[in-house]
Structure formats: C-alpha cells, structure tokens
Design goal:
Blueprint: E1 20-23, E2 26-29, H1 30-48, E3 61-66, H2 75-91, E4 96-101, H3 102-114, E5 121-127, E6 132-139, E7 144-152, H4 156-168, E8 177-182, E9 185-190, H5 194-201, H6 212-222, H7 229-240, H8 244-258, E10 263-268, E11 273-278, H9 279-285, H10 287-303, E12 313-317, H11 324-333, E13 338-340, H12 346-357, E14 365-366
Parallel strand pairs: 3-4, 5-12, 12-13
Antiparallel strand pairs: 1-2, 5-6, 6-7, 7-14, 8-9, 10-11
Helix pairs in contact: 1-2, 3-12, 4-8, 6-7
The chain binds adenosine-5'-triphosphate and magnesium ion.
Length: 367
C-alpha cells in the first residue's frame, strides 16, 4: 500500500532547510506534522483524568523537554528547534509553556521519587536514540542547583548505523573488486560502493537507490558468478525490495537483545542474511562510541570543576544506557554509585514535576 512513514522527526527540528518536507509531493511544515500528535496526547490525557471538573481547556500548560543540544544543533539552530516545538504545542492548545533540558528533568524526577534522603550531588546520564545528555546537580537543604550540563549527538541510531556499516555492508559487496570490459579493454577496479554507502546507511533515503544509475552496475557485478556475486545479489534484493528499514529494525532489535544475551542472530531471509553477533564483537565495533561517551562524562565533570569522588549518585536513564558496556564505563569511574532510573519514563516524570513546581526557563535552581 502506498504510505509515508514518519519516524524521528525530532532529528529534523534543528535543520533550517527542513522547514517543510514532502508528503506525497505536497510540502508540509514540520510543525504541522507534530501538532496532531500533541493534540491527540492532550485528548488522551483528558480521558485519563479522574477529576470530572477538569475540561480540555484546563489542560493548557506543560514543561517541554528537549536535548541539551539537538542533533546537528548548536546555539542558533537549537533556538530554531525550540521555536518549532513551542509553536506546535501552542497550536495543540498547550499555551503556557516552560522548557527544561531532558537530563535535568530526569534529575528532578529522581529527587522527587526518593523524597527526603537526598544525595549531595547527582550526575545524570540520559543516553537515548539521538543524543547523549548529561548534567550535574548539587542538592542542598533548601533546594538544588544545576552545576553543569553537556550534550552531544551520540545515541542508539548512530550505534545501529555503526553495526550496519561494519557487520552488514561487507556482506552486501563493500570491499569487492569489479572486473569488466570497457571499450574493448579489461578493467579491474574496486566496486564503487561509496556511491551506495550513505544511501544504505540512511534508510529514509534508501529508496533513491532503486534507479538504473545504481542498479545497472549491481546487476552487472552479480552476473559475474564468482564468490562476490552472492553479495551483490543481496544488495540487489535490498534495493529492489526497498528493505533498508527492515534491515535497520533487525539490527536495532539484535542490539537491544545483546544487552541481555551474550550472543544474538540477525536473520533476514529476504536478503539471504543470517549472521551471529557476539557481545564482545559488538563492543569492539562501537569502541569509538564508548570512547566518546567516556570523554563526555569527563567534560561534564570538568565543566563543574569536579572529580568522580565529588559525585554521590550517578543516574543512568534512556534506552541506550541499557547497553552493558556503557554501564561498565560508569561503574569503573563511579564504583557502587550507579543507579538505573526508569529508562523510558524518567524524563517525562521529571517534566511533569517541573511543570507542577513552575521550574524552567532555564532551570538553574530546582525546587
Ligand atoms: N535493551 C536495550 N539495549 C540497548 N539499546 C536499547 C535497549 N532498549 C532500547 N534501546 C535503544 O534506546 C534508544 C531509544 O532510547 P530512548 O527512548 O531513551 O530515546 P529517545 O528519548 O527517544 O531519544 P533522545 O532522548 O535521544 O531524543 C533506541 O536507539 C533503542 O534502540
Ligand atoms: Mg530521551
């Protein structure tokens, strides 16, 4: 059936050139795509409220969470992303707004949950699909204060891409040579896989590969009948059946299972792929991300002029924080101080509390 999948719109928010995106050839504003989702959430919320006296009109305020830095952000572009989010919420009826960086929201949620017995200093590590966000909060008798925040574009999406690049692309012909006759001469060159790579790695645009310019060399190469030909048959099936999204979903699921199991299988019969991945192999593949993660932790400490011993509790939240190798980095730096906080709802709880207490814009002092 013809369809148009919307997925990860947040990733486009900080990009000026994406004011509108094409939907069946019709340009639509990003803001206009987000608004109906928010409207629906607001109506659902009303449906779950126990109080009979609250009407839809009463649900007109909220604290809006955002990454410290949007993917591909930077100060000016972050302002654009926030303006777009704000406009979408306004159209959806949430007109009284405050804003709060997501790692700070997680800290607020946690502090509310634990009640009176507060640690002196918390480091929050929110590691999600698109971004890694960190903050340090100092707690006092009377309140709490944000001492540093740091964020960067590292997350599960990038990890999925790394696995596809290192594990799957060689099975699709990356690194193979291409012998053929051109103008009566034998020519032997590397197959121009570079032309395909970025389009495979970004499944949103992979459909562009299904054009003669790309398929003709693949058809020729898979016709060679050698060892490598099988890989190009896979690439051909991936392109013509438009299976990049399925490939990424399979890799993402396998990665998630690896957080629990020591070994997983990625099985995609449509393109003749059935491969095993061990956790140690996976960890070697993502060594760059592990290094970047470690440096980000160092940076948020440095920015606050603190060392590991100054931190009493390390809160890890977000889906990617479930990957054992990242937890191990935290455990090594902060032995016996790492606590897991609701990976998928911690930030949202904190935002609700921030809204209730009127914390925000920007939250320096909490409570
Ligand atoms: N068990 C798991 N092991 C490893 N990764 C996981 C696991 N569960 C979820 N993930 C990954 O976590 C990411 C989603 O996490 P989360 O829901 O915290 O992100 P998000 O809040 O949507 O993104 P962001 O905060 O970056 O905007 C995805 O990349 C997903 O694959
Ligand atoms: Mg998140």
């Amino acid at each position: 059936m013809p369809g148009r999948l919307f997925y990860g719109i947040k990733r486009l928010l900080a990009d000026e050139s994406n004011e509108r995106i094409a939907v069946f050839g019709k340009p639509m504003r990003l803001v206009a795509l987000i608004t109906p989702i928010l409207e629906k959430m607001r109506r659902r919320l009303q449906g779950t409220l126990r109080s009979e006296s609250l009407s839809l009109e009463d649900i007109d305020h909220g604290c809006l969470g955002h990454p410290v830095e949007f993917e591909g952000g930077g100060t000016r572009r972050d302002a654009l992303a926030l303006a777009r989010v704000s406009e979408a919420y306004r159209h959806a009826g949430i007109v009284r707004q405050s804003f709060c960086p997501e790692p700070i929201a997680a800290a607020i949620g946690y502090l509310t949950e634990i009640g009176a017995d507060r640690p002196r200093r918390i480091l929050t590590v929110d590691f999600g699909g698109g971004t890694l966000d960190l903050c340090i909060v100092r707690c006092e008798e009377s309140g709490a204060e944000v001492e540093s925040v740091h964020g960067l574009g590292l997350g599960g999406n990038l990890i999925d891409q790394t696995v596809v690049r290192k594990l799957i692309l060689p099975m699709l012909g990356k690194g193979e040579r291409w012998r053929r006759r051109v103008d009566g001469r034998d020519v032997d060159t590397p197959f121009p896989f570079m032309k395909y790579e970025q389009l495979i790695l970004n499944w949103q645009v992979s459909y562009l590969l299904n054009q003669n310019e790309y398929t003709t060399p693949v058809i020729e190469r898979k016709g060679m009948g050698d060892e490598g030909a099988r890989k190009f048959e896979r690439l051909y099936q991936l392109i013509t059946q438009n299976l990049s999204f399925e490939l990424f979903q399979a890799v993402k699921k396998a990665k998630e299972r690896l957080s629990v199991d020591p070994i997983v299988r990625i099985d995609l019969p449509e393109i003749d792929i059935d491969v095993r991945l061990e956790r140690a192999e996976f960890e070697a593949m993502i060594s760059g991300a592990l290094e970047t993660f470690d440096q980000a932790v160092q940076k948020v400490l440095d920015d606050a002029g603190l060392g590991p011993s100054d931190v009493n509790v390390v809160l890890r939240t977000g889906g990617s924080a479930l990957i054992p190798a990242f937890t191990e980095i935290l455990e090594r730096r902060f032995p016996a101080k790492v606590v897991q906080y609701d990976p998928f709802t911690g930030v949202a709880s904190g935002l609700a509390v921030a809204d209730y207490h009127g914390i925000g814009n920007p939250p320096q002092r909490l409570f």
